[in-house]
Amino acid sequence: MNGIPMEHGLVLAAILFTLGFAGLICRRNMVFVLMSLEVMLNAAALAFIVGGTAWGQPEGQAMFLLVITLAAAEASVGLALLIQLHHRFKSLDVDAANRMRG
Amino acid sequence: MEIAFYLSGLIAVLATLGVITNTNPVHALLYLIVSLISVALVFFALGAPFAGALEVIVYAGAIMVLFVFVVMMLNLGDQGAAQEKAWLRPRIWLGPSLLAAVLLVTLIATLWSGDAGRMISGEVLTAKAVGSLLFGPWLMVVELGAMLLLAALVTASHVGRVASPDKPEVNAESGARKEAS
What we know:
The complex is a heterodimer of chains A (102) and B (181). With 102 residues, chain A is mainly α. Helix content of chain A is 76%, strand content 2%.
């Protein structure tokens, strides 16, 4: 056995992405929704790395850097929204914020 | 290298299952950190050490610490966990999980029907190649990433403030009234 087939890496990325997706649409607590989003972004980054290493090119790792930038931006904005949600509604239920008032 | 890949991939899947099924936010966060570190090990096993180090430093080190701080600041008690348990009834999670499983089967079937057939030999791509790519032909993309981070900084500091925009005037008014009285 010399090396890992590319499909195995992509299947791992697909499994992680699907788990994050299931968490995203099952949960109502915003902390868990944000964590599931992180899992999904991480799975996408894993797919980029698998592709980059399979072809032996550094573009995969460069794209990983951009995905990690996106994840940091998304986490900071999402956590600010989470703090606002907790402050205004005293709850982390995303359904509490389904009315557009102020 | 193969053993490291498959073992850390298994740990990543199990830890992610722990994330999405846990009801305690702090335990779920710790599972998520385990998942991210095992994905970093997958990167090392695939021959991308720069990406693995960045995953540990930025993801598990910075973003997850941000999550932990916010969860600690909100002080979610046992009441939240009980509410989570009430929300996690099988009637609620069965349908979405079924849809996600169908999506997974479709993804895997598509992957296997393709004929990529490439082997990852674990040849190491160092940070030097990544850096000369990023600061050579991809310079514009780095600038765009910097602008994205700046926009996120402004948005987080605007949205994350506790007082609403008309609050300071009210406070100033009451302060003035206090001084007048």
